[in-house]
From TrEMBL:
PROSITE patterns found in the cross-reference section: GH9_2, GH9_3
Family according to the record: Belongs to the glycosyl hydrolase 9 (cellulase E) family.
Gene3D superfamilies: 1.50.10.10
Listed SUPFAM superfamilies: Six-hairpin glycosidases
Catalytic activity, as annotated: Endohydrolysis of (1->4)-beta-D-glucosidic linkages in cellulose, lichenin and cereal beta-D-glucans
Protein name: Endoglucanase
InterPro entries assigned: 6-hairpin_glycosidase_sf (IPR008928), 6hp_glycosidase-like_sf (IPR012341), Glyco_hydro_9 (IPR001701), Glyco_hydro_9_Asp/Glu_AS (IPR033126), Glyco_hydro_9_His_AS (IPR018221)
């Protein structure tokens, strides 16, 4: 590369970094208020019999007979987004991220901590049901095609509530191992609060992990017609198996789980996705599908402390991941909008901004504890630099952006009014007690009127790469909230709440 090209690239990186810094520091935010609302959002996603403590009162009981047609109680859990299906793969990832958020930042949540624990327990109670039959793991409830063809309140839905499970003959290692990770991480959350419940979660986590590992295979192959294209596994199931083992080691300190991580980690250095071979390309990926960067950040703490050996790949891979995010890094591989929002390929872009921001603040903590910095070629990034980048993303989401719009419903003076969400967009049972059938909701779907029910705390898919946002219910890529956008942001907001106070 010529000196001129290097200079142009450096100037471009500096300009992006300046934009991010300016946008993030242009106003201050009430991270405590945003934290409260980010947790409250999950009450709007609840399925099943709602408790008397329910604060989002326009939501009512729904799906009270899930699983009954086959004699299994599958009532509870969360709807993943703006639909009424329970997809256990992203639900489990969201649960793992909520648990990790509490483990890292629970002490900073103050009065929000009990609500965060309730949010986790609503999921783990359901996962105990979904894994109650040895040799079976229920991975989905509801026919997604029937559901997506109807614009119905969850309280009204009359589409098939078909339960889908994996077993020994038709395995689903990715979703089973992610459930194991969620149960293991959550067992640590409840260890000092409810020892009996914690022990039950950990015992089930071990059982489900053993099942996922012994009967290996992707649920794409066994349940593809029903789980794809909604939550297909694109990255293989090896990352979930390692992720589950890492969480089990963290929860148990049993060396067999550590050995499993070490022995299987080389499988993540290369692979084949949809017929395309790749080498080392997934170390920078993290989300409901790919756990690679999360594994390296999680295990890096163990590598820096309890198991100290620089020969392990986790620290170097975590550093490489960080270098893909820093605008000034020579190995930057993400894009930034003019206003400073991080972009990666795929829909619902704010899922990338929230999950990667979570890893930034967590890894910054680990680096501080180890008195380390990240080296990206000649660029040295301190832990404070990682926090600064994460703060820019958080502040952008909360309104420090070219549109001065918060992308969290109910936070700030300006936020999305027409989110792609059935329950929020249809009148509540309090306002409209009569049922609204499958096609009866279309008038509300295509209406330009604001949603009558505020799904407070919901973070939508977000703006496009030019910082533009069309507040349209039909533009689901940008206007639909999901549990896995919100879950990691809970930890991010708790961290910045503690810093601002």
């Amino acid at each position: 590369m010529s000196a001129l090209h290097k200079m142009v690239g450096l100037v471009g990186a500096i300009m992006v970094a300046m934009v991010i810094t300016v946008v993030s520091s242009s106003s201050t935010h009430d991270y405590g208020d945003a934290l409260t609302k980010s947790i409250l959002f999950f009450e709007g996603q609840r399925s099943g019999k709602l408790p008397s403590s329910q604060r989002m009162t326009w939501r009512k009981d729904s799906a009270l007979h899930d699983g009954f047609e086959i004699g299994v109680d599958l009532v509870g859990g969360y709807y993943d987004a703006g639909d009424n299906v329970k997809f256990n793969f992203p639900m489990a990832f969201s649960t793992t991220m909520l648990a990790w958020s509490v483990l890292e930042f629970g002490k900073d949540m103050s009065s929000d901590l009990p609500h965060a624990l309730d949010t986790i327990r609503w999921a783990t109670d359901y996962f105990l049901k979904a894994t109650s039959i040895p040799g079976f793991v229920f991975v989905q409830v509801g026919d997604p095609y029937g559901d997506h063809n109807c614009w119905e309140r969850p309280e009204d839905m009359d589409t098939p509530r078909t339960p889908f499970a994996v077993n020994k003959q038709f395995p689903g290692s990715e979703v089973s191992a992610e459930i194991a990770a969620a149960l293991a991480a959550s067992s640590m959350v409840f260890r000092q609060i409810d020892r009996g419940y914690s022990a039950r979660l950990l015992k089930r986590a071990k059982m489900v992990f053993d099942f996922a590992d012994k009967y290996q295979g992707s649920y794409n192959d066994s349940l593809g017609p029903w789980v794809c294209p909604f939550y297909c596994d694109f990255s293989g199931y090896e990352d979930e198996l390692i992720w589950g083992a890492a969480w089990l080691f963290k929860a148990t300190k049993q060396i067999n789980y550590w050995n499993y991580v070490l022995q299987n980690m080389p499988k993540l250095d290369s692979g084949n996705t949809n017929g395309v071979s790749w080498v080392g390309g997934s170390f920078a990926e993290f989300g409901w599908d790919s756990k690679h960067a999360g594994i390296n950040v999680l295990v890096s703490k163990l590598s820096m402390s309890t198991i100290s050996t620089e020969s392990l790949p986790f620290i170097s891979n975590a550093d490489r991941f960080i270098c893909t995010l820093l605008p000034e890094s020579p190995t930057l591989s993400v894009s930034y909008s003019p206003g400073g929002l991080l972009f990666k390929p795929g829909g619902s872009n704010l899922q990338h901004a929230t999950t990667l921001s979570f890893l930034l603040v967590v890894y910054a903590r680990y680096l501080n504890q180890a008195k380390r910095a990240v080296h990206c070629g000649d660029v040295v990034a301190s832990p404070a630099r990682l926090v600064q980048l994460a703060k820019g993303q958080a502040d952008y989401i909360l309104g420090s952006n070219p549109l001065s719009m918060s992308y969290m419903v109910g936070y700030g003076e300006k936020f999305p009014q027409n989110i792609h969400h059935r329950g929020s967009s249809l009148p509540s049972l309090d306002q409209h007690p009569e049922p609204i059938d499958c096609k009866g909701g279309n008038d509300y779907l295509y209406s330009e009127n604001p949603n009558p029910n505020l799904l407070i705390g919901a973070i939508v898919g977000g703006p496009d790469i030019k910082d533009a946002y069309v507040d349209s219910r039909e533009d689901f890529v940008h206007s639909e909230p999901t549990t896995y956008i919100n879950a990691p942001f809970v930890g991010v907001l708790a961290y910045f709440k503690s810093q601002s106070s």
